[in-house]
Amino acid sequence: MRLVFMGPPGVGKGTYATAVSREFGIPHISTGDMIREEMKSGSELGVKLREYVEKGLLVPDELVTEMVRKRLSNADCSLGFILDGYPRTLKQVEDLDKITKIDLVINFTARDEVIIDRISGRRICRNCGTIYHIKYMPPKTPGVCDKCGGELYQREDDKPEVVKKRLEVYRQQFAAIIDHYRARGLLAEVDASEQAEVVIPRVFELLRSKGFTMK
Ligand code: AMP
Question: Is residue 166 annotated as a catalytic residue, yes or no?
Answer without folding.
Answer: yes
